[in-house]
Records
---
Amino acid sequence: MGEIPPPTPDAPTVLLYSHYDVQPAGDEKLWKSPPFEPTPVEGGLRARGIADDKSNVIAHLGMLRAFKGRPPVGVKIVFEGQEEYGSPFDDYPPTDPERFACDAMVIADLGNLRPGTPTLTTGLRGASEVVVEVRTLEEPRHSGEFGAAPTPCSSCSRPSPPCTTCTETSPSKACAARSGPARATPRTSSAPSPASRTACR
Ligand SMILES: [Zn+2]
């Protein structure tokens, strides 16, 4: 982190964020130039992480240089090194809110619409993590008579009760393979067929 205090007491403070860590380069034989040696290509630079997110670090520093290190606002700079790994920034700022307090935040972690076109993104989808709990019947039931009620086994990964077809304790994949033709055919008859009795759902 770095900080430039506001030039006047009423000047706002802007927090600038970027990260300098990158994803692994993968199989280097597939690269046309060394992944960690920035190489000029068609008017730009090619290297691992050059767009995500090292060039954006340079954009922040370029702004400070443009103002000769004396911007008209207070500046807080956060350059993170674990964004790609799984950022600790979900948890860390709330433990020290004053350190991150600001009036506006500029997150430089996105690309331009095309090379040479400065682009300001004003909204993102964000991300969420959810836990889905599925409750099923205790044992497989005929789909024609019991409709959409989920039966165990292929509907969930619950190990108990075991699948009646294959007796695997984690039977989803095994049952999908063994009962493929039966599962692929919609069952419209209300009369239990051999397939509906033995398929996982
Ligand atoms: Zn990024």
---
Amino acid sequence: MKRSVEEHAERFSEKATEYDDSKSDEYRACADLVVSYADPGSDDVVADLGAGTGAIALAIAPDASRVLARDISEGMMEEGRRKASEARITNVEFAYGEFREPNLGDVAVDIVTSNFALHHLSDDEKREAIRVMAAAGARRIVLGDVMFFGEPDPEEPFYSPEVDDPATVGTLVEAFTDVGFAVTVAERVHDQVGVLVAERIGSGEEVPGAE
Ligand SMILES: C[S@@+](CC[C@H](N)C(=O)[O-])C[C@H]1O[C@@H](n2cnc3c(N)ncnc32)[C@H](O)[C@@H]1O
């Protein structure tokens, strides 16, 4: 990470109340795809990591049994809780959780989602985060994020090289494959923005740390 967890948390908390106001078309397309590919059933527990103000968690909640929304920024989660209360959504629980220690307790998670958040981690940290997602027991992981389909281009607006550290699509696919998942969908929204859907193959017992 190019900043500490605490610095990232502070950065997001400072802009939390305006966060929802200015979103790019690509961000919206990405979020819509994550919601649509997550496709939970009414019994499914979803963990939304880097949940922010709840763009994914709150959209998924009506279709899921329960959504565990985890983030490091109290300010972002406070906005999320406010939006949930306004929309009378009661099955989303916002709580502190870092990608590599998501604080999911002993709850059996069916689906993990994450949108526009994992790119704050270095590639090694992303691999560790993806290992932790797999170990939570999920059958499906849906990742929307800044990711490079071609060559990285710092002139593009989708990331700030001082604070963000996006991976190539190849690195992410390899990380999912390494923990026993097959990437069944790779949707390119922009050369630097996409959505990957990874499905567990096999029982999961072969994944280090999985139940
Ligand atoms: C660009 S926002 C995306 C929020 C939401 N997923 C969305 O689609 O609008 C990135 C979020 O990732 C969170 N974040 C950054 N680093 C994180 C980490 N290491 N673990 C968990 N969350 C993190 C930030 O606090 C912020 O809320």
